[in-house]
Amino acid sequence: MAPTTRIGIIRIDVAGYWDIEDLLALSESLAESYGLFYPLVASEDVIRDTLYDHLRQKFWSGDIDARHFGRFLYQRIPSDEGLKLRSFSYASAGVMEICGVLACLLMLAKVARAWIQAAADLVDLWAWRSFLRSEKASENRKEISS
Fold first, then answer.
1. Which range marks the domain in which residue 85 is found?
2. Res. 2: pLDDT tops 50
3. Which among 26, 36, 33 is positioned nearest to 109, based on CA atoms?
4. Is residue 136 assigned to a domain?
5. In the chain, how many domains are there?
6. pTM above the 0.90 mark?
């Protein structure tokens, strides 16, 4: 008997200024990431082994387009365990609900949070650097005027 797969739901806020290109980019990014994580959490040994075989064959053949490898794997995920659009509401602001394998969604959320934190830290660092530069410029002006 195959292990039971737990399905989960993620909610993504959709800002009023999104356009169709933003939705396309999100869709491709989610499918790509999901395809990369799914082999780690596939509940059935046969499916997991098949995905690992695809991974080994592509990697060792040298015939690999690393940019779209997650999408290649995603296309080989059984359709009942792929990402599904559960609901979509587009108002200012809206929300999108996507369901998929819970363990895979949790990994996606962790990676997304890490990227968001890294971006926030980068902005903070840039702001601190700008502040230090303005302080140094202020000191230089004081020295010149003295």
1. 7-113
2. no
3. 33
4. no
5. 1
6. no
